[in-house]
């Protein structure tokens, strides 16, 4: 599983076309009668526009409109058949999404006549959507101002089983209106809500101390896909937060696919009527906000206790305290020396069976039972988890904001403790007594040869089908990450590692090197599939196709060099990583197919280094 940079398709002539067609651009048909012929009757009538305008203004959690039937049904059925039978899709996976997608449909303008003849309905639909009447229709409903007819930005997306799109606000460049047209099938029976793939809309709240409004951790409106349904809204910075829930069907065998055409209308471009040059800096997108400083406070160690010097053996008192929690093998001097050598070479180390056996066994059994009681365990089947699953009852709270992360944290203790020890009690003890202790600080100094200065620790629970963190980076200093993974495993099935170990359920911890000059540097693809041409069709390959695939292979190999570390979930494993400034880090979205939650105790340390005296000065 090697995440690499995801590249946005550009509306340039596909390299597979003969030189004759590289500069021969098909002129889009933007005449008014295009819309009249291809959209549903009365779509542009003033009474319909007025009704939709009222719905738009009254809609929550942000202004949007759902048009139940947009395109003539016969046309849309032909479009669907062309997409399924004649287009190829590339699987793309990043920290924020997994989807099968074509290139930008603006590339249709560069197809040869023979290629156009394979996609006539798709070309007709694209021209109709960007025609003056339809752009005026969008303006009348949203009040968004002039829209470009030349800057076309759309693609066909197939959300097969496991595909998803996490929370974001769509703010990039000149995007003005976001839209999605659904073509899910089977058509006659309709797409069922329990199959997933719904559009989720999030309200925003003002958080004390936060510069900008943030989306709530849970959506307030969920819109299931429907055939010929068209949803659109004006792109609003820090307001239009939405996501697409995971599709839990869509395999070659089951004949179901959440197919859609989505994209953006951009504001009028230079040389277009209504163009206005920008008068102020662009608003910060939700992705850019991932690089803002964190809000969790670091707790410094007491000045009354001397800091542990790297290389100093653990004291008897430290060993006695750590024996309550750690596997005794990790307290032996020669083992610590070997780990320190490895960490010095690799800046990371992963330790298995870290906790002592009795504590680990009790905790694993308790976490399995907790998932079962919350309806998130192995017996629940492959279903969509409710957003409030596992919350409440004084055990777990959800933590957002979801455009940065969503997972559960331990609720503050309240009332009398239970008569029997719960897994939450053990996790809280690890968080409050082990990780911040002076003994564990000395142990970290021994293994990393660093000086821990302050720390912040939390217990995290990533529920299947719901939780994740998006790629973030600390821009000012290095940090020591300490993650005690406590995810109950499933083991091998028919001789093959499944689930967590294979990466099929997500939840992996990923570290990526920074890339200079990227417009959206936090987005990465973790699929090992090769990039496809912008608009490949299922026609016979040509020499030009082979050349383009070679270029794609080369670019993917270059991108894969950005992966520094990927650690799959597992039970009772400790991961230590020295994260340099600028290095990006995320926990991949946990799939609805996972047979339980991903648990960990996660700490972050501000660290220093002890300067060695120069021998000549000593």
TrEMBL record:
Its main location: nucleus. The keyword Nucleus applies. GO terms for molecular function: iron ion binding; L-ascorbic acid binding; peptidyl-proline dioxygenase activity. The keyword Nucleus applies. Residues 150-267 form the Fe2OG dioxygenase domain. Residues 529-540 have a biased composition (Low complexity). It is found in: Nucleus. It holds the Pfam family Ofd1_CTDD. InterPro entries: Oxoglu/Fe-dep_dioxygenase_dom, Oxoglutarate/Fe-dep_Oase_C, Pro_4_hyd_alph, TPA1/Ofd1_C, TPA1/OFD1_N, uS12_prolyl_hydroxylase. GO terms for biological process: positive regulation of catabolic process; positive regulation of macromolecule metabolic process; regulation of translational termination. It catalyses: [ribosomal protein uS12]-(3S)-3-hydroxy-L-proline + 2-oxoglutarate + O2 = [ribosomal protein uS12]-(3S)-3,4-dihydroxy-L-proline + succinate + CO2; [ribosomal protein uS12]-L-proline + 2-oxoglutarate + O2 = [ribosomal protein uS12]-(3S)-3-hydroxy-L-proline + succinate + CO2. One of its GO terms (cellular component) is nucleus. Its cofactor is L-ascorbate. Residues 1-24, 520-561 are annotated as: Disordered. PROSITE patterns: FE2OG_OXY. Keywords: Dioxygenase, Iron, Metal-binding, Nucleus, Oxidoreductase, Vitamin C. Belongs to the TPA1 family. This is uS12 prolyl 3,4-dihydroxylase. The lineage of its organism: Eukaryota, Fungi, Dikarya, Basidiomycota, Agaricomycotina.
């Amino acid at each position: 599983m090697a995440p690499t940079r995801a590249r946005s398709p550009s509306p340039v002539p596909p390299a597979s076309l003969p030189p004759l067609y590289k500069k021969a651009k098909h002129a889009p048909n933007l005449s008014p009668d295009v819309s009249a012929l291809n959209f549903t009757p009365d779509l542009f009538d003033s009474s319909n526009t007025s009704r939709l305008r009222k719905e738009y203004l009254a809609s929550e959690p942000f202004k949007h409109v759902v048009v139940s039937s947009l395109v003539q049904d016969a046309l849309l059925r032909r479009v669907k058949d062309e997409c399924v039978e004649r287009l190829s899709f590339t699987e793309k996976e990043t920290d924020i999404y997994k989807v099968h997608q074509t290139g930008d449909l603006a590339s249709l303008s560069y197809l040869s006549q023979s290629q156009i003849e394979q996609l006539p309905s798709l070309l007709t639909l694209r021209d109709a959507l960007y025609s003056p009447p339809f752009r005026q229709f969008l303006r009348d409903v949203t009040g968004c101002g002039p829209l470009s007819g030349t800057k076309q930005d759309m693609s066909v997306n197939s959300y097969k089983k496991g595909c998803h799109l996490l929370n974001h606000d769509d703010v990039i460049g000149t995007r003005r209106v976001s839209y999605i047209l659904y073509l899910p099938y089977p058509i006659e029976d309709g797409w069922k809500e329990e199959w997933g793939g719904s559009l989720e809309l999030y309200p925003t709240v003002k958080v004390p101390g936060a510069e900008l409004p943030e989306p709530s951790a849970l959506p307030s409106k969920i819109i299931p896909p429907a055939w010929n349904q068209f949803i659109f809204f004006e792109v609003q910075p820090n307001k239009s937060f939405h996501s697409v829930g995971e599709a839990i069907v869509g395999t070659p065998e089951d004949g179901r696919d959440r197919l859609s055409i989505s994209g953006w209308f951009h504001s009028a471009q230079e040389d277009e009527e209504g163009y206005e040059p920008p008068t102020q800096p662009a608003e910060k997108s939700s992705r850019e906000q991932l690089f803002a400083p964190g809000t969790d406070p670091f707790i410094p160690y007491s000045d009354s206790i001397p800091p542990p010097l790297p290389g100093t053996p653990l004291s008897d008192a430290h060993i006695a305290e750590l024996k309550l929690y750690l596997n005794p093998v990790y307290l032996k001097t020669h083992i610590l020396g070997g780990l320190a050598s490895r960490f010095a070479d690799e800046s990371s180390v992963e330790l298995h069976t870290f906790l002592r056996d009795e504590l680990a066994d009790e905790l694993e059994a308790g976490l399995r039972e907790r998932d079962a009681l919350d309806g998130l365990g192995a017996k629940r089947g492959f279903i969509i988890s409710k957003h409030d699953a596992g919350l409440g009852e004084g055990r777990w709270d959800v933590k957002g904001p979801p455009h940065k992360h969503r997972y559960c944290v331990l609720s503050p203790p309240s009332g009398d403790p239970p008569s029997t020890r719960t897994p939450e009690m053990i996790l809280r003890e690890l968080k409050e007594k082990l990780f911040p202790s002076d003994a564990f600080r000395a142990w970290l100094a021994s293994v990393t040869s660093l000086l821990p200065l302050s720390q912040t620790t939390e217990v995290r629970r990533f529920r299947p089908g719901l939780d994740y963190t998006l790629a973030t980076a600390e821009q000012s200093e290095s940090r020591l990450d300490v993650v005690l993974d406590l995810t109950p495993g499933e083991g091998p099935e028919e001789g093959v590692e499944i689930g967590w170990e294979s990466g099929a359920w997500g939840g992996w911890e990923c570290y990526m090197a920074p890339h200079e000059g990227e417009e959206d540097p936090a987005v990465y693809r973790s699929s090992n599939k090769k990039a496809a041409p912008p608009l490949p069709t299922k026609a016979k390959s040509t020499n030009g196709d082979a050349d383009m695939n070679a270029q794609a292979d080369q670019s993917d190999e270059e991108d894969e060099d950005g992966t520094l570390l990927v650690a799959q979930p597992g039970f009772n494993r400790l991961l230590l990583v020295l994260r340099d400034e600028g290095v990006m880090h995320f926990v991949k979205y946990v799939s609805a197919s996972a047979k339980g939650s991903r648990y960990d105790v996660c700490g972050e340390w501000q660290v220093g280094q002890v300067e060695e005296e120069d021998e000549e000065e000593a």
